[in-house]
Amino acid sequence: MIKVLFVCLGNICRSPMAEGIFRDVIEKAGLEQQVMIDSAGTHGYHIGEPPDARAQSTTARHGISIADLRGRQVEAEDLKRFDYVLAMDEENLANLRRLPGSAQVRLFLEFACATSTREVPDPYYGGLGGFDRVYDLLEDAAQGLLADIRQRLTGAKPT
Ligand code: 4NP
After folding, report:
1. Is 8 in the active site?
2. Residue 155's pLDDT band (boundaries 50, 70, 90)?
3. How far, in Å, is the centroid of ligand 1 from the Cα of 155?
């Protein structure tokens, strides 16, 4: 089982969107028995809360429901359990790197191929358009991550 954790600040916008989008990609690839997916926030502001209504409506327009997800804070144990710990921006990355054993932590957009943008911008204080932009970036990186995981599963050297 390959385990993937998406991490943002609040775990109510970007990382639950990433979780829902990547779950959809993995299901369509028929790999749901081989890949486990979760998300968390570096801060505890929104523990137990569902994703932001704008995040939910954005993924819903693409046929993806994230309504059942609930916010949680990342913990040191996560770095032991997950094979991929994927941060949305440099601030999330820096916060994760303060935890022990964070060697596998990287920026999710390293897997994107249609953009050279390295960070998924925080859409919380903006309008719905920001969430569409987030969706597009996440969808791009999700395809790249799928390719990387396929390589791992077939024993080829991961990127
Ligand atoms: P996220 O967005 O990190 O993508 O979930 C945010 C959610 C909440 C806050 C900031 C960003 N906040 O300040 O409460």
Report:
1. yes
2. confident
3. 37
Which pLDDT tens digit goes with each residue over 76-91? 999 999 999 999 999 9
How distant, in Å, are the alpha carbons of 3, 19, 48, 118 from that of 123?
Answer: 26, 16, 20, 15
Give the span between the Cα atoms of 67 and 37, in whole angstroms: 16
Is ligand 1 within 6 A of the CB of residue 87?
Answer: no
Domains and CATH numbers, the chain: 2-154 (3.40.50.2300)
Output the pTM of the full model. Answer: 0.96
Catalytic residue status for 113:
no
- Whether 12 lines ligand 1, by a CB cut-off of 6 Å, is yes
- Distance (Å, rounded) from C-alpha 59 to C-alpha 61? 5
